[in-house]
Amino acid sequence: MDEKSKRLLARRGGAGRRLLLAMGLFMAIGIPAAPCHATDVGKALAKPGNADADWPSYGRTSDEQRFSPLAKINEKNAARLGLAWEASLESPRFGIEASPIVVDGVMYVSSSWGRVFAFDARTGKSLWAFDPKVPGSWLRNGCCKPVNRGVAFWNGKIYVGAFDGRLIALDSRTGAMIWEANTTGGKPYYTITGAPRVVKGKVIIGNGGADFATRGFFSAYDAETGKLDWRFYVVPDDPKKGFEHPELEMAAKTWGADHDWSLGGGGNPWDSFAYDPDLNLLYVGTGNAGPFGVFRPSGGDGLFLSSMLAINPDNGRLVWHYQTTPGDSWDFTATQHMILADIKIGEQTRKVLMQAPKNGFFYVLDRATGKLLSAKNFVHVNWANGVDLETGRPNITDVGDYSHGPKLMFPSPFGGHNWHPMAFNPKTGLVYIPARDLGWIWGADRPTFFTTGYDLARLNKDDVAKDMRGMLIAWDPVAQKPAWSIQQKTQINGGVLTTAGNLVVQGTEDGHIMVYSADKGKRLKDIFIGTGIVAPPVSYMLDGEQYIALAAGWNGVKTARHKAGAPAPYDNAGRLVVLRLGGSPVPVAPQVRVPAFYRGGAGERPASLVSKGAPLYQRNCAMCHGVVGEGGVFPDLRRMSNATYHAFDEIVLGGALAPLGMASFADQLDKQQVEAIRAYIADWAERSRHGDENPSPTGASSITEKSRGF
Hints:
By secondary structure, this protein is mainly beta. It has 2 domains: 31-581, Quinoprotein alcohol dehydrogenase-like superfamily (Methanol Dehydrogenase, Chain A), CATH 2.140.10.10; 607-708, Cytochrome Bc1 Complex, Chain D, domain 2. Strand 7 and strand 8 form a beta hairpin.
């Protein structure tokens, strides 16, 4: 990476500059198991209605509807749900985002780093486990933790993407590795967190890294041999170097004459795929511009950023594209879940693709042609006031332009809807969206994740007063309005399952498994497990018994909002919870001790050193360790021990904890800068101990927690 790229990465707010001071990583070890029959479910993945008893792919079928045709568990008996079995996913800190798959009585599920577990789906007996042995130091190369969203099955093989960019094929009976392909060449700042898909004997996989200005692409590998078949680059490279495929020549013209081609550009397709076997089209959602936080509309649309692409899977060529956010400047990815369905619009049944991406608009497209049929906002949106149906472009408002001063914009980069899968029920005709209303303060002078220090008087007062909330929305894609919605206590909640039993099932950040009626949103069951949930549930049937399975584990132990006398938070270690009718009570996760705020000696943090450390913390540490001190996967450094305080240099510069994920920052920071960061954290801890949790060392910020958008 050239020096200009490094400077821009250093400016983008600290993502990737990880400061992990204490964690335990429990690695799974491959254990052979008795053989189990593995069926080629390729045809069953193509259309709904086949293999009803199994959940053989990420979205159950290649249309990604996340609809189960099973109805033994239904609105009349859902109150009887209880525990069938549970198992540890051996991830005590990192979030669990995986969707399990079930094939012929075996459940396969991934955990952090790309580890894979196989269980007897009836009893929960462990069959085997696989660990790709990703180096802990690779953690610094990812924006958003070493999570993994799932595996794929094909012809007796399990496919998984490891966090360091490897695609791995395993024997489904034993967990033994068959082949692996390094999809990203071991280049820094590339990761894999999404689930592979198998289409016509090819394994499709993308990658993350747009925030770091990598160049996004997705690839197709031969499912039997691991040989690369084709690769599609989402954004062009320097035109002087030529183009890997013809679509890029057209795309290059949309990047502006003064574009810096030394940067990768982003666009990484880190999650969403769908496939229509009748049209023979693979649909791919692409990511945001890189680097993060640069205002760029004057530089052109930047194809194929934040777009939905229709690809011929036989040769990797583009058939059509639709860009949701031209000139992306807000981290408005279109990598969110895409659903294929046939719905009646007017007097005509249309083959549609539906997506609710980060930017807050719900899109309905003709999936054969890419023609926009409708688009309406499903959450509060102020960066644009609608989408022009003729041009397909958003009507950007002055709020969307933060180049001349701070703006509180909705949605935030967390999105009106993020990766957490939505679901479509063909019986109700509704799409169930795990949505949120969250704001984000942008400013031309500080394109970072740290949002304190702005003058709220310059912002829109109506937006400042807007409630921040999570929601489950039952969205009518024809009328483009909610049929019903539920306001939630927490803001970042789990993906969704819907079933023929008129059910919608979702987990929540604060540890509840909620079951609603799909038609009216009536609450049918609330199971408290303590463990926070972001992953989506699945359903399957064995021996006449229907099960609902869900992987839990939300961002580690949350400590920041713990006050004296408040109940201790619940452990968020990864676990797999499987429910059935008449099951036993689900165990609640244990509560955990909250470490005290660090209490240092006098003279350790002079004001001048603290002030110097504040922006260094913001740029290098805040993305992981918290912009307002919130707890999560990574330790709240305000609660560091004396031993950690005095070992700061050895950890941050010497890489003492590199095997545990805390790589050395000697290439980014010098000894004096590290000392300033340590002083700032100690000062912040002292102020927090006395009730002032404002991260600003001067106390100048008047931004409330609500206006921050956290």
